[in-house]
Design goal:
Strands 1, 2, 3, 4, 5, 6, 7, 10, 11, 13 and 16 form an eleven-stranded mixed β-sheet that branches. With 291 residues, the protein is an alpha+beta fold.
Length: 291
């Protein structure tokens, strides 16, 4: 099952992504919540009811809807730095002994095909293709053996980074460099079930058609289950939390010379079995400023 958030006729709601279109769950299962976070919080019976609609005919074509961030405002977006062996090597850093944890503010969540904002204050932009997982229920002190039970599904993400802001201060403040509005495209769907092995997937990132990242998730230093155990030891993971598991080698600032994202660039991240997201970098529009 592939859960999506989409907008049609000015109304955003939850659906199922099929090869030939979109099933509108507000029609197929009208008793279900129409918003993704509420659907996840409704629990396994609600998810099972949504899955029961998978065999219905699509209500809309793929071109007839706009895809939104799978969860428009996740309770938490937790990210992991330096979590691929090859990425640690290209960064000239030792392998971490424990996960390097930071947060991206929930307002950074963005649609899988929506533009990424560039501005003069944050022009040292970089891409980071990543595997993301979505937590299915509130949980704490989850062991690695139990971790699979609290994962709803997986999706594709881009941990867009503003490198100069990321490295400001002593020590650096990752959150400020990682949390700019629009800098967490995520989707196109939450893939639930379907035999996904999160630790054996090919991840690729292209910039303007040029392949920059090409790795597999078996290069993760701390796998998905280890991350859940580590994080949930300290704090409660909540239904709808998104965990970005880290990026492989090939980021722009490891290129020679370093390559910044600039307006007009297109970044595509694809993960085997999960689909692809693609976002254009644009100058932040004046309408994005709210005062």
């Amino acid at each position: 099952m592939k859960l999506i958030t989409f907008t049609e006729a000015g109304w955003s709601r939850v659906g199922l992504l099929k090869d030939d279109g979109v099933i509108d769950l507000s029609i197929a299962c009208p008793s279900l919540p129409h918003e993704m976070l509420a659907l996840i919080q409704a629990g396994p019976d609600a998810i099972a009811l949504a899955a029961s609609a998978c065999d219905q005919a699509p209500h809309f074509s793929l071109l007839g809807v706009a895809f939104e961030a799978v969860i428009k405002r996740p309770p938490k977006i937790i990210a992991i730095g330096l979590n691929y062996r090859a990425h640690a090597e290209e960064s000239n850093m030792a392998l971490p002994e424990v996960p390097l944890v930071f947060t991206k503010q929930s307002t950074s969540a963005n649609g899988p095909y929506s533009p990424i904002y560039w501005s003069e204050e944050g022009n040292a932009m970089d891409y980071e293709g990543e595997l993301a997982l979505v937590i299915s229920r509130n949980c704490r002190r989850v062991t690695q053996d139990q971790a699979k039970e609290v994962i709803l599904g997986f999706c594709v993400a881009n941990d867009v980074s503003v490198r100069d802001w990321q490295m400001r201060g002593t020590p650096p403040s990752f959150t400020m460099g990682k949390s700019w509005d629009s800098h967490c495209p995520i989707g196109p769907s939450i893939v639930v079930g379907e035999g996904i092995d999160p630790h054996n997937l090919r991840l690729q990132t292209w910039v303007n058609g040029a392949l920059r990242q090409d790795s597999r998730t078996d290069d993760l230093i701390f796998d998905c289950y280890a991350l859940i155990e580590f994080l949930s030891t300290a704090f409660t993971l909540e239904a709808g939390d998104v965990i970005l598991t880290g990026t492989p080698s090939g980021v722009g600032f490891a290129q020679q010379p370093p390559a910044r994202l600039v307006p007009g660039d297109r970044v595509r991240v694809e993960i085997e079995g999960l689909g692809a997201i693609e976002n254009e970098v644009i100058v932040e529009p004046e309408a994005a400023a709210r005062f």
